[in-house]
Structures are given as C-alpha cells and as structure tokens.
Amino acid sequence: MTKQDNRAYKYRWLIWSVMVLAYLLVYFHRLTPGVLQSRLVDAFDLSATSFATLSSMYFYAYMIMQIPVGILADTLGARITVTSGMVLTAAGSFMFGTAIYPVMAFAGRFIIGIGVSTVFVSILKINSRWFKEREFATMSGLTLLVGNAGGMLAQTPLAALVAVVSWRYVFTLLSLVSLVLAVLAFLLVRDEPSSLGFDDINEFKLDTNRGKDHDLYFAFKSVLSNWRIWPAMIFYAFINGSWLAFVGTWGVPYMSSVYGLPEKEAAVYIIWAMLGMLVGCFSTGWISDKTGRRKFPMVVLSVSYTLIWGILSFWNGGRPPLVTIKPLFFLMGLGFTSFILSLSVVKELNLPRYTGVALSVFNTSGFVGVPLIATLSGYIIDVTTEMGLMVKSQYHWAFMAVFILLCLGTSMLVFMPETYCKNINYSKIK
Q1: Whole-angstrom Cα distance, residue 249 to residue 243?
Q2: Domain count of the chain?
Q3: Distance between CA 377 and CA 387 in Å, rounded?
Q4: Dihedral sign, CA of 21, 26, 30, 35?
Q5: Helices in 45-166 by DSSP H: which ranges?
C-alpha cells in the first residue's frame, strides 16, 4: 500500500463518520413517535388512526424523496445532498417542536422526513466509491448498526428525558444538532477519492463518457427494466414496513396496553428488538461478504422474522407470556437484517454508475410499506375498539394482517437471484 493509498483509506473513515452521525439522527426521528404517543395524543387530541398518520408523515416524505435523492446523489453528489437535507431537518424539527395546531405538527414531521431522506442513499453512494466491492455489505451493515443506535436513543433514553423536560425542548435541540451536521458534511465530505487527488478505491471504475448512458431517462430505464429487482422491492416493502411500523409506532403502545407497562418500562422491551438488529447489522453483511453468498442467509433470516410475527399474532391470542417477549423481540430484530442483503443484491444487479438511482428506486418500495402497515394497524385497532374487543384481541388482528403481508413478501425471495457478491455486469448470475 502506497502512502497516498494509506491517506485515502484513513480519510474515508472520517467521511463515513460524518455521514453516519447524520444517519443516527435519521433513526432517532424515525422512531420517536412510539415513545411520545401519549404526549402527542394529548397535545393534539389524536385518534389511533390520526396518530399513525402523524407518525407516517415522515415515511410519506421519505418515500416521495427517494428517487429525487438518488438523482441528486448521482448528479450533485452526496456532500451537497446531505448538507441540504440536514438544513431541512433543522427547520422541520423546530416546526414540530413549536407546533400549536395539529397541522403544524403534521407539516413539521413531513419536512423532517424530506430532510433525513437524503442520508441513507447518499451513504450507500459514498460506500460504493470509498470502499471495495467485497466491503459493501459489511459497510451497509455497519452503517445500519450505528443508525440503529439512534433508534435505541429514541426508546428508554428519550422516555427518561421527556419525563424531565418537555418533548418540545428535545426537538428544538435536535434542530441545532442538525445544523451542526450540515456544516460538518459541507466541510468534510467528498464524493470520490479523486476529489482529493486519491486513486479510486473501488475496483469497478465509473464510465466517464458523456453519452446517452448518462441521461436520467436511460438510468431509470436501465434500472426499472431489470425485472430481477421487482421481487426484491416487494420483499423490502413488507419487511421494512412491518419493522418500522412496530418499533416506531406500535411497539411501545402494544407493551403498554396489552401488558400494562408504563412507557419507560415498555420502551426497554423494544430495545431488545434493536439489540437483535445491532447484532444482525454487522454479522449479516460480514458473513455474506466472507462466504460470497447473498440469497441463503437472506432466506433464513426473513423466514425467522416472519415466524416471530406469527408467534406474536397467535400465541395466547396475541399476548405471549411476558417472559418470552425479550427473546422474541431480539430474534425479530436479528431476522429483520435480512434486508441488508437485498440492498447488496440490488446494487449488484445494476450498473455501478447508477448505484444512486437503483438504490433510491429500491428504497422507495421499502417506505411505501411503512405508512401502509402503520395506518392499516391503526385502522384495525380503531375498528376493533369500536367493536368492544379486548386490547390483546385488537393487536392480535392487527399483527395477523402484518403476518399475512410478510408471508407474501418472503415468498418473493424465490424469484431473487444469487449474485455471489459480484456485479451482474462483470459476472454471470446463476
């Protein structure tokens, strides 16, 4: 390794650190409504469906922005895209924290969703240029591991904090943190090693010709006409939708309502799901990269995840013994990390220069599922409440609907190819 190579390898960790701090904030915002449910319901007089919709405003914005973010990451670059996103996140956080009327809270959460939507695809774009091909799944998992730590901060630590100070102060502070991250991204992040005079690190060089291959039309045609990514998108919609609807919206209310736990104690149980995800985030990608396999570990983990939802739905009518909840939630989080490998498969099924567009199209599907499942669950809970059903029966029917959707999503893995950790344009897919 030359001296220049050594400098590039060190600097990439500085870039990744700034980007992943922004991603930690993404996860914190993503999961706060579950812990703040009672406070938000009281502050804005919300029904279960309205609360789920408020939580979902983030995901509607996130979903809408994925394709534009992919375009921005491939054209303006990750540096400018994330800098702009953090400025918008600051504005949305301030609006949400100072909201007097429900419409202001809904708008603030929507703006937050727009702002943070810039981060994940941009990190993947950075990882695809600053790290080698066989490091991509590992770095994706490591990125999600740190992001998940932000989700953990949005559980018991947030519950303890808002017991002392108003949730409004928390969001005002988050607006300041977002501005600091915007400045750091602008000053330190660089899109390519060549931007600092370094040689390329990823072994697959980007085509620098400026022909029709660089038109947005051709980029989307290339990605969307690749039928192999469509089963992956359906799979991702249901697994990501169910996970985020649970940990970000209904997990804490489920533990509080069904088991009679206070919010702070209920949030501890959700942390066990995130601990499972923490373990899976790094180990899933690492094992896949080391073994050169994508599909087999993805199938094992996704089937396990689906079975956990079946257990939560049917065991004791939707109320498994409390002693089993922590291990069940841990296994749920571990199984959820199967989606990390679907990200790698989609990247490997498309041209390297269209990584941003391909991953943004794919990521859109994942965030179609979140408001769908969160709102569907809220609607089922509202309807079963009006029917006079017991609380555990309300969650039984809501979770059973999710279980059915997950069975459909997991079945899509049959149609996904094994890429053997190689790009389709450089090796034959079997």
Answers
A1: 10
A2: 1
A3: 15
A4: positive
A5: 48-75, 78-97, 102-116, 119-130, 136-153, 156-162
CA distances from 374 to 112, 240, 249, 251, 258 (A): 18, 11, 7, 11, 18
Indicate whether 420 belongs to any domain: no
Q: What is the pLDDT of residues 313-351, one digit of tens each?
A: 999 888 999 999 999 999 999 999 998 888 888 888 887
Query: Does 211 score more than 60 pLDDT?
Result: no
**Total residues belonging to the chain:** 430
Specify if 200 maps to a domain: no
CB atoms within 10 A of CB 391: 19
- Residue 27: name the closest of 89, 88, 80 by CA: 89
In a domain, 426, yes or no: no
Kindly state whether residue 430 falls inside one of the protein's structural domains. no
Quick one: tokens of 247? 């940990």
Cα-flanking dihedrals φ and ψ of residue 192, to 5°? -135, 150
| 205-218 average pLDDT score | 56
Q: What is the pLDDT of residue 271?
A: 87
Is 92:115 a contact under the CB 8 Å cutoff? yes
* pLDDT mean over 121-148: 80
Contact 417, 342 (CB under 8 A): no
pLDDT band of residue 4 (cuts 50, 70, 90) is low
Can you give the CATH number for the domain in which 68 is found?
Answer: 1.20.1250.20
Question: 298 is in which domain, residue-wise?
Answer: 3-195+214-415
The count of C-alpha atoms lying within 13 angstroms of the C-alpha of 285, restricted to the half-sphere facing its C-beta, is 25
Dump pLDDT digits (tens) for 68-83.
888 888 888 899 999 9
